[in-house]
Amino acid sequence: MLQPGQTAYNLTILRHCGGGAYGDVYYCHDITGKKLALKVIPKSRLGSGWERELKGITHYRSLTEDTPGLLKIYSVGKDDDVFYYTMEPADAVAGQEEYIPDTLASRLADGALPQESLPAVLEGVLDGITALHAAGFAHRDIKPENILFVGGKPKLADLGLISPLTGTITQLAGTLDFLPPEERSGEQSGASHESRQKNDLYAFGKLIYCCVTGYGANEFPSMPQAMPLTLGNKLYYRLALRLCDRLPECRLVSLQKLRAEMESIGLKVKFGETRMDKVRYFFSMITLMTRNATKRSIAIVKRHGILATCLLPVVAAIPWLVARSHWWRLDKESEEMATALLEQKEIAENTKFAKNDFTFYDGMYSVAVPSDWLAFDHEQIVKARLPGDQIAKRWYGLLVSNDEAGSNVNSTVAFFILPLTEEQLDGLSDEEKINQLKPYIGDDIEALSFRQYKNPRLMNIETILFVGEVKPLKASINYVYLRKDHALCLRAIIPQERYEKDMPKLLAITDSLMIRKPKQKP
Question: The whole model's pTM is what?
Answer without folding.
Answer: 0.58
